[in-house]
Amino acid sequence: MLQTVTYTGNKLARVHSKILFSKEGQDHIAIENTHPAIISMEVFEKVQERIESKTKKYTTAKVPLRIFQ
Known about the structure:
single chain, alpha+beta
């Protein structure tokens, strides 16, 4: 829930191409202000930074790319 951008009033959609064996065909589409926000973007970004700092501390996992800035 803490990593879902939908709660900020924005939507993230993926469009897949018809190329079956290639990951190059994946695109992310960011749509802003699609519905009323439950939390502000500032709060969402602070949570993402905190998650990222904890993730770096304990693992080498990658944190999802931020598209809305």
